[in-house]
Amino acid sequence: MTEKLSIVLGRHGQVEDLRSGTVRVEGVDLDFIEIKRMPDAYRAMARSQPYDVCEMAPTSYLMAVAAGAPITALALPMTRRFRHAGLLRLRESSIRHPKDLEGRQVGVRAYSVTAAVWTRGILAEEYGLDLDHVTWLTEEDENVESFATPVNVRRVASDTSLAAMMMAGELEVAFGGLAGVGADLDDRLVDLVEDAATKEADWYRRTGIYPLHGVIVVRNDVLARYPDLPRRLYAAFVAAKENYLARVASGAADGAEDKRYRRLAELVGDPLPYGLDSNAKSFEALVRYAHTQLLIPERPAIASVFLDPTAAA
Question: Hey, what CATH class is 87-207 in?
């Protein structure tokens, strides 16, 4: 009898055919669990591993593995987004340059949010920002319970929020969307890094780094039962992605996210590359950023923490 594996995936175009059953994983049935807010699934997988297979923020994954969580990530990045953009300031703020953040406060949902890890790394390496001289204000628990935040991370009071502090002018800079203050303040906020899209393209051409958000994580006991599962998952994810990218190219998929990937393809080629070799520079950068930002105690080789499903494909 075919075993069912519980799985949590975001509603991405590249997994639509897996969700619908148009593409199937050889030898198993996927039992999709719907989660209202994906960060809650990341936290659950870091703490108690309730799902057999789960999309997970890569920084939370690295931290969870460092803390002993029995899970393994496959080199199957789910979403991609450059991160010069996304750190927002009040329009009226006098803060104009990343270096201006030194001695100031910046809001982020939790210190370990992957979007923030990418942006902090970029601001440090590209703009010379001293991350230790910024106070990072957070409003949620970290996904890994045992993680002790650095001394320059402070939790806001329980009776307020980052969004409320920005509305009151008590906070001038914060991450947007799920990484921070949501979308309600969009008309009051602008990107701290001006002309971010041009700078992102230049950075990519120089470094080859293409920020990833979300990897496919499997519980180790499931991998022990199904040693060939990484290859089978890879084959199914690739088939679903190829179907999706064909719809993007033809215009059959034409939503905002589809158009974004169509534009990204002009810069990067395949906008959703899978496998370890295709993503080595990006994985290496993320591991480096996570280590320098004190999220993980060591800097592991990427092949030791991200299993390459193409090796057996």
Answer: alpha beta
